[in-house]
Structure of Diheme cytochrome c-type:
Amino acid sequence: MRLIPSLLALAAIAGAAGWWLTAPTRAPAAALADLTGDATNGELVFWATGCASCHMAPGAKGEAQLVLAGGQAFPTAFGTFHAPNISPSAEGIGGWTTEEFVTAVTKGVSPGGQHYYPAFPYAAFANMTLQDVVDLKAFIDTLPQDATPDKPHDVGFPFNIRRSLGGWKLLFLREGWVVNADLTEIEQRGRYIAEAMAHCGECHSPRNALGGIERSRWLAGTPNPAGEGSIPNITPAKLTWSEDEIVEYLTTGFTPEYDSVGGHMAHVVENMARLPESDRASVAAYLKKVPPAE
């Protein structure tokens, strides 16, 4: 009979340890104290990170893409996620402090202390500089307000247990670069854009059964989670375009074979085309340094 109290004690200790390990973490307030947002740079960060592509209303065109009302649906193997309203309104992120915004973007934690689902690519944004994230908020604060309420995610048990996402982060949230080769300054800039801001790996890399990115097969392509076709391998094993051809594609959406970009990638090209050409060239240079993967 003495075994039962011992087992209960061990279970209690394990439960407390698990609760502590899965606790949400916040951005370092001290590191943000001296940072001031620059909306001009924030606009470039906004396009590089593709905020409008996910957070504009479904079907929005032109200037309406700057109204970050949310509502787009993103089906996955774990359920369907709906992009929230991130306009600077009361229904969006209008009342958020800089610390709350940086915590959301880099830690995947809401102002209320809940873990966000990794459909929000904070695993990539974790590698962004704090200054760029602060600048991003400064630009979003200049955009139109919208009162559209958020749509709830359609996620079933056990994935609807938010605390379990703390365990997911322990397993798969890895700060630091995937490509650690000896890179030039231009290639490093391309890595920063591709791995952090533009979060290319979030779509172009395969994932394991728990949704963690297989970093050993970085950018090797994967089935489309929406169920239509696949997302291509963009490592040098399959992407044989020259750097100039990659830059042309990221500028105009036309491939060397005179095909045109489609699907969600069309938004990515629109975003990339708004960046300086030097940034598109840096991404092309980086892609040539990615280890080939079949």
The radius of gyration is 20 Å. The longest helix spans residues 3-21. Residues 6-12 have pLDDT under 50 and may be disordered. Residues 10 and 16 are 10 Å apart (CA to CA).
